[in-house]
Design goal:
The complex is a heterodimer of chains A (509) and B (143). Chain A is an alpha+beta fold and 509 residues long. Chain A folds into three domains: 111 residues, PAS domain (Beta-Lactamase); 98 residues, Beta-Lactamase (2-Layer Sandwich); 245 residues, Heat Shock Protein 90. Chain A has 14 helices and 18 strands. In chain A, the strands form four sheets. Chain A has a six-stranded mixed β-sheet with strand order 12-14-15-17-16-18. In chain A, strands 2-1-5-4-3 form a five-stranded antiparallel β-sheet, with helices on both faces. In chain A, helix 10 runs parallel beside helix 14, helix 11 packs parallel to helix 12 and helix 12 runs antiparallel to helix 14. The longest helix of chain A has 44 residues. The radius of gyration of chain A is 44 Å and the shape is rod-shaped. The two termini of chain A are 83 Å apart. Chain B is of the alpha/beta class. A five-stranded parallel β-sheet of chain B has the order 2-1-3-4-5, sandwiched between helices. In chain B, strand 1, helix 2 and strand 2 form a beta-alpha-beta unit. Classes of the chains: A alpha+beta (509), B alpha/beta (143). Chains A and B meet through helix 9 and helix 10 of A and helix 2 and helix 5 of B.
C-alpha cells in the first residue's frame, strides 16, 4: 500500500502550530532540535493535540511528512487518534515513557521501532510539547525472533529426543538436564554426574565426559547406570563438547540411550549359542556311549559272555537315559514366557528339594544338611516349579562332586536358606574336589560337564535362566572346605522380563 | 582277527598290557573290550589314586588317560607318572571328553610344565581305528 499524504487543512492565515511550525521557541531550543537532525532515528516534536510541529530530516525523508500532519496520521495512517496513546499518560505524569510499536514506513512498509516520548519543558512552545524519538529495531527484532525460534527448536530437540541428557561443567557438576533424564534420575542440577548416574563418590575411570573436555571430541562408551529407583540400566553414552565463541569447551553434553533390552537379547542369543554347542557336545557323548555299548554287546555275544552283554546293554540304557535328560533340559532352556507366580515359603521349598536327594546322598554316604538363617520363613513370589528345578540342579551337582571323593570322604552338602530383607538367598555348598584349578575359568565359561556321560552340561544354563527370570543372580565361588559354593539370590519383589542386566553365563564372586 | 595277529600276538613277549584310566566305568568297559578284541591285555582303573598304584604294579606298555577326572584330575596323575623315573618311559595317550579348542589349551599347558608331552591326544567319542592306530604307533615308538 502506498502512503498518500494527507492534505493540510486549508485556512486563511493559519496559526504557526496549524502550519506545523513551532512558535515561541528560543534560538537555543532550535539549535538543540537541529542537532536531532544528525540522529539516525526518527525524532519529532508533537503538540498536545498530536500535531507534528517539527520533525528531523530522517523522519521527513522516510515518512513523507507534510507540515500540520498529526502523529497518528504519520505513524499509522489513521484518521483518528489511537485508543491507547502514551501521550496522555506522559502529559498527565510529566514523565517520559518508552515503548515498542510498529509503524508504517511508506518506503519499506511496517517497521518495528523503539520509541521514547519525552515531555518538553513549558515554554518550549506555545502549548505543552513532546519529543518523540523512534529508533528502527526491525532487524534487531527479526534476529531476536530468529534466536527465540532456534531456542525453541533447541529446547524441543533437547526435550524430545529419546535420550537422557545432562550437561556437565568442568567439575563434573550437572548444570542442565532434560525431562526424560529427570524422570529416570530425578533432580540432579548441582550434583556430580558420577553420583547421580552411578551412585559413586569418585569420578569414573575412564570417564567419557573428561575425555571430551580434554580433546574437545565426541566420545562414546557403554555403561551401566542406576535409575532413581535403584534399578540398573545399560546405556550407550555419547559425550559432545559445548564450546564458547573462542572454541573452548566449557561444558559437555552427555546423551544416554537405554540398550538394556538389546543387551538382554544379546545375552539370550549368547546363551542360546552356548546351549546349542553344549547340546551338540552332549549328543556326541550320547552317540559315543551308544556306539560303545553296541560294540560291547556285539563283542560279548561273540565271546558268549553274559556279564559283558549285560554291561553293554546298560551302557546303551545310560545313553538313552542321558538323551532323555538332555531333551528335558533343552525344553527348559527354550521355554518362553513369564514364570508362573506363586507364594513360596523358602524353607519349605528347600525341604522339598532336599528330601528328593536324601536317598541318593545316603547311598553314597554323603551327609546332606539344611541350614536356615533368619528363620522367618516369610513367603516370596516366584515360580515354584522353576526354582525347584534350579535348586535340584545345584544339589545334584554338589552330590556328584562329593561322590567323586570316594574314600576321601565323607562328602558333605549344605543347603542354606538366608532370609534377608530384600532378597531370599539359597546356597549350596559341597566339600567335593572343586573344579580343577588348571581349567577352572574356562570350564565355567564354556559350561562343559565334568561328569562325562552323567550330565548334559545344560544344568547350569537352565538354573541360570530360571534365576534370571526372577530378576535374581546365580554366583559361584570356592568354598573354604575345598569344594564349591553356588548361590542363588532372588529378590523378594521379583522383576520379571529380564529387566535386570546380567553378566553372560555365570558370574564368579 | 587279522588285526589281532598284527598287534597283540605278533609280539613274542605275550600280549601288550594297556592301562585304561577313566572315571566312567562304561568308558573303561568299552575301551577294554575294544583292546581285548584286538589282542591286548586291558586293565582298568576308575580312580586316579588306584590307577597310580596299579601302574606301578603292572608296568603297562601304554596308558590311556582321561584328563578330566574329578578328585585328582588326570593332569596331576600325568605329572606323577612323568616324574617317576621308573614310569616316565610309558607312552600316555590322552583320551578326553573336552572340546578341540581346550585340547589346544592342554597342549600349551603341558609345554609350559616342561614335562614330556602325552604321546597323543584323542577326543571322545573315540573312533576305534584311530585309538588302535595310536596304540600301535606308541608301542612302535617305544620299541
Amino acid at each position: 500500500m502506498f502512503w498518500t499524504p494527507v492534505s493540510p487543512k486549508k485556512k486563511e492565515a493559519p496559526e504557526p502550530e496549524e502550519r506545523g511550525e513551532i512558535a515561541n521557541v528560543s534560538e537555543e531550543a532550535r539549535g538543540g532540535l537541529s542537532l536531532l537532525n544528525l540522529l539516525p532515528s526518527y525524532a519529532c516534536v508533537v503538540s498536545g493535540e498530536r500535531t507534528v510541529l517539527w520533525a528531523n530530516q530522517a523522519m521527513k525523508r522516510d515518512m513523507g511528512l507534510v507540515p500540520g500532519m498529526r502523529c497518528f496520521e504519520v505513524h499509522w495512517l489513521r484518521e483518528e487518534p489511537c485508543g491507547e496513546c502514551p501521550l496522555d499518560m506522559v502529559a498527565s505524569t510529566g514523565k517520559s515513557f518508552c515503548w515498542e510499536q510498529s509503524i508504517e514506513n511508506p518506503q519499506t512498509g511496517k517497521i518495528q521501532v523503539l520509541s521514547q516520548l519525552i515531555p518538553l519543558p513549558w515554554g518550549f512552545a506555545r502549548g505543552r510539547c513532546f519529543l518523540e524519538i523512534s529508533t528502527d529495531v526491525t532487524l534487531f527484532k527479526r534476529r531476536q525472533s530468529q534466536l527465540e525460534l532456534s531456542q525453541r527448536e533447541y529446547k524441543a530437540l533437547f526435550e524430545g529426543v529419546p535420550c537422557y541428557i545432562s550437561v556437565q561443567d568442568r567439575d563434573f557438576r550437572i548444570i542442565k538436564t532434560n525431562g526424560l533424564f529427570q524422570k529416570e534420575f530425578g533432580r540432579a542440577i548441582g550434583r556430580k554426574c558420577y553420583e547421580v548416574y552411578k551412585g559413586r563418590d569418585k569420578k569414573c575411570d575412564p570417564c567419557p565426559v573428561e575425555r571430551t573436555f580434554v580433546d574437545g571430541q565426541i566420545h562414546f562408551s557403554e555403561e551401566t547406570v542406576r535409575r532413581r529407583s535403584g534399578e540398573p540400566m545399560e546405556v550407550v553414552v555419547y559425550t559432545a563438547p559445548i564450546k564458547d565463541n573462542w572454541g573452548t569447551t566449557y561444558a559437555v553434553m552427555e546423551m544416554s540411550t537405554e540398550i538394556t533390552p538389546v543387551k538382554t537379547l544379546q545375552r539370550e542369543l549368547a546363551t542360546l549359542g552356548q546351549a546349542v554347542a553344549i547340546t551338540a557336545h552332549s549328543i556326541k557323548n550320547i552317540l559315543g556311549g551308544l556306539d560303545g555299548g553296541a560294540y560291547v554287546v556285539r563283542s560279548a555275544l561273540r565271546r558268549n559272555d553274559p556279564e559283558l552283554t549285560e554291561k553293554g546293554l546298560s551302557m546303551i540304557q545310560e545313553g538313552v537315559e542321558m538323551a532323555r535328560r538332555l531333551l528335558q533340559d533343552i525344553l527348559l532352556v527354550s521355554r518362553h514366557g513369564r514364570p508362573k507366580l506363586e507364594d513360596i515359603s523358602p524353607v519349605n521349598l528347600a525341604l522339598e528339594v532336599i528330601s528328593l536327594f536324601q536317598k541318593r546322598a545316603g547311598d553314597l554316604g554323603i551327609e546332606l544338611q539344611l541350614e536356615t538363617m533368619g528363620e522367618r520363613n516369610l513367603t516370596f513370589r516366584g515360580d515354584h516349579k522353576g526354582l525347584h528345578t534350579a535348586l535340584a540342579n545345584l544339589l545334584s551337582n554338589a552330590i556328584d562332586a562329593c561322590a567323586s571323593l570316594g574314600a576321601q570322604g565323607p562328602g558333605k552338602v549344605f543347603l542354606r536358606v538366608h532370609e534377608l530383607e530384600e532378597v531370599v538367598c539359597f546356597q549350596v555348598e559341597d566339600n567335593g574336589p572343586g573344579v580343577p584349578e588348571e581349567i577352572k575359568e574356562k570350564l565355567f565359561r564354556e559350561m562343559v560337564t565334568t561328569k562325562g556321560n552323567a550330565g548334559t552340561g545344560l544344568g547350569l544354563i537352565v538354573t541360570n535362566k530360571i534365576v534370571r527370570e526372577h530378576g535374581g543372580h546365580l554366583r559361584y565361588r570356592s568354598s573354604p572346605r575345598g569344594g564349591t559354593i553356588f548361590e542363588i539370590m532372588i529378590p523378594r519383589k521379583p522383576v520379571f522380563g529380564e529387566k535386570y542386566p546380567e553378566q553372560t553365563g555365570l558370574s564368579s564372586g | 582277527m587279522r588285526l589281532h595277529l598284527v598287534t597283540g600276538e605278533v609280539d613274542m613277549g605275550g600280549a601288550k598290557r594297556i592301562m585304561i584310566v577313566d572315571d566312567e566305568p562304561s568308558m573303561t568297559t568299552y575301551l577294554a573290550t575294544l583292546l581285548e578284541d584286538h589282542g591286548y591285555e586291558a586293565h582298568c582303573a576308575n580312580d586316579p589314586e588306584e590307577a597310580l598304584e596299579r601302574i606301578r604294579d603292572l608296568r603297562p606298555d601304554v596308558i590311556l588317560l582321561d584328563l578330566l577326572m574329578p578328585k585328582k584330575s588326570g593332569v596331576t596323575l600325568f605329572q606323577k607318572i612323568s616324574r617317576d623315573e621308573s614310569l616316565a618311559h610309558i607312552p600316555i595317550i590322552v583320551v578326553t571328553g573336552i572340546h578341540d579348542h581346550m585340547i589346544e589349551d592342554f597342549r600349551s599347558f603341558f609345554s609350559s610344565l616342561k614335562l614330556r608331552r602325552p604321546f597323543a591326544f584323542l577326543e571322545k567319542p573315540v573312533v576305534p581305528e584311530e585309538l588302535l592306530g595310536k596304540v600301535r604307533e606308541s608301542l612302535a615308538a617305544v620299541n
